[in-house]
């Protein structure tokens, strides 16, 4: 179900013109700012919140509306607080709704409503003859307010970039462990045709943000071109573009056993699950991790209970997680054994486009001295630091930036704020239709693994950020 297909249903039904015109005694103080919050919430409720969320928000808005109406009709001889107390109680009940909490609204929308209602209540308590006056603290805050461009650059320096020292330390730790594992594998399985293990991923490509806390080892399996063929996802029984298979061919001329990898074949196809299992037994369950930890002066241990091959490295300085990825590379195609993507399909391999995407991003920045990578890293840091957005990975954000580069050509530092806001709008658009095409393979939907609830949660958070992008930069 997409956001466009939803409708708001309330017990009260549509609001008539007569109901919308309230009999006020002059223009109430604080009305403009307060009404702006309500108008924004109502205008966008159906698009973002869905039926349940919009209905609850409608109830909240009606409560506030009744509160304002009561306040506007208070006789001169009565105290505002006595007449409006029922409205405040109604609003507090709404803010405690479990449906609001489930949708993640309480932390954002209700915060805005609460702030606005608190300000309005303060205004109502003032004598009617008193002229509205801006608090000195508020004036000072406005004077010190930074532009979005300045906030982004400040956020980039203080929260996004990693020190060269931290990156170097993490890389050196990873390389030392990589060397130890490769030496152990060559000793234990001297006949296993493996290429040189090497470090890959965002830590190597200067795309890691906030902390240097993850890396990956790529373990190339050397397969024979004449004995194996890569089957694109569209040609498999599943028909999923990013889930490929590796089929054994020419068995009539080269019978089973001619390739080392024949022993890990299931049903005529090289099994990614079997490869992971053999590496798990050969490395994770066999290596002397306490001895290695002592040698490298840091704690090195396998992560238990994980489908993938993962290590945890910890010392007094930081914590680093390393994924070990068996890969097959033929020409420009890279397939990886990644259970997080292939799921329970034993013979499926994940078609990784990471190398192509990062190379294209660097190429575009080099051509026009642009700041696409900087914009990407800010978005990655925002998503990593904001729980509702953590489902959005670097892969999703990289593809958004690449698509945006097709229609926007100014990626200078001066345009950083515009591109950042535009990227947020683009993501909302993709979430709205439930489809984010891969830049290099348009048939691949990068949102296919998202649930409707996750899309609603992410969409709501980003929609709030459209009018107030600074909420994503709060620390």
UniProtKB/TrEMBL annotation:
One of its GO terms (molecular function) is nucleotide binding. Gene3D superfamilies: 1.10.1410.40, 3.30.460.90. Residues 1-10 have a biased composition (Basic and acidic residues). The chain crosses the membrane at residues 47-64. Pfam families: Mab-21_C (PF20266), MID51-like_C (PF21297). Its main location: mitochondrion. It is found in: Mitochondrion outer membrane. The keyword Membrane applies. Keywords: Membrane, Mitochondrion, Mitochondrion outer membrane, Nucleotide-binding, Phosphoprotein, Transmembrane, Transmembrane helix. Residues 166-357 form the Mitochondrial dynamics protein MID51-like C-terminal domain. GO terms for biological process: mitochondrion organization; positive regulation of mitochondrial fission. This is Mitochondrial elongation factor 1.
């Amino acid at each position: 179900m997409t956001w466009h297909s939803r409708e708001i249903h309330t017990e009260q039904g549509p609001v008539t013109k007569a109901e919308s015109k309230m009999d006020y005694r002059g223009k109430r103080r604080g009305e403009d700012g307060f009404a702006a919050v309500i108008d924004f919430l109502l205008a966008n409720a159906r698009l973002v919140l869905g039926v349940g969320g919009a209905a609850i928000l409608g109830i909240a808005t009606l409560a506030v509306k009744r509160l304002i109406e009561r306040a506007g009709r208070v006789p001169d001889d009565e105290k505002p607080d006595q007449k409006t107390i029922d409205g405040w109680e109604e609003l507090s009940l709404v803010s405690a709704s479990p449906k609001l909490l489930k949708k993640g609204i309480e932390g954002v929308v209700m915060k805005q409503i609460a702030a606005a209602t608190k300000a309005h209540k303060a205004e109502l308590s003032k004598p009617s003859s008193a002229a509205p006056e801006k608090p000195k603290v508020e004036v000072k805050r406005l004077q010190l307010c930074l532009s979005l461009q300045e906030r982004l650059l400040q956020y980039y320096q203080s929260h996004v970039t990693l020190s060269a020292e931290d990156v170097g330390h993490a890389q050196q730790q990873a390389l030392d462990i990589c060397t130890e594992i490769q030496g152990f594998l060559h000793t234990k399985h001297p006949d296993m045709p493996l290429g040189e293990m090497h470090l890959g991923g965002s830590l190597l490509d200067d795309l890691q943000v906030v902390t240097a806390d993850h890396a990956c080892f790529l373990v190339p399996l050397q397969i024979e071109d004449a004995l194996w063929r890569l089957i694109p996802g569209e040609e498999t029984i599943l028909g999923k573009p990013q889930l490929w298979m590796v089929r054994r061919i020419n068995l009539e001329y080269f019978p089973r056993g001619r390739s080392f990898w024949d022993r890990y074949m299931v049903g005529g196809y090289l099994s990614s699950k079997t490869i992971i299992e053999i590496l798990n037994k050969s490395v994770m369950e066999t290596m002397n991790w306490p001895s290695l930890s002592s040698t490298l002066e840091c704690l090195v241990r396998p992560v238990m209970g994980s489908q993938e091959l993962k290590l945890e490295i910890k010392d007094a300085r930081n914590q680093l997680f390393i994924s070990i990825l068996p890969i097959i590379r033929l020409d420009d195609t890279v397939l990886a054994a990644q259970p997080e993507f292939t799921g329970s399909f034993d013979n499926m391999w994940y078609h990784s486009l990471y190398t192509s995407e990062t190379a294209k991003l660097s190429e575009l920045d080099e051509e026009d001295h642009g700041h696409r990578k900087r914009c990407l890293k800010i978005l990655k840091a925002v998503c990593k630091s904001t729980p509702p957005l953590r489902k959005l990975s670097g892969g999703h954000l990289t593809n958004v930036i690449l698509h945006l580069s097709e229609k926007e050509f100014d990626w200078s530092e001066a345009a950083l704020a515009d591109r950042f806001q535009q990227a947020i709008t683009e993501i909302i658009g993709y979430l709205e239709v439930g489809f984010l095409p891969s830049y290099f393979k348009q048939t691949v939907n990068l949102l296919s693994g998202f649930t409707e609830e996750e899309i609603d949660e992410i969409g709501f958070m980003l929609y709030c950020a459209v009018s107030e992008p600074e909420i994503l930069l709060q620390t």
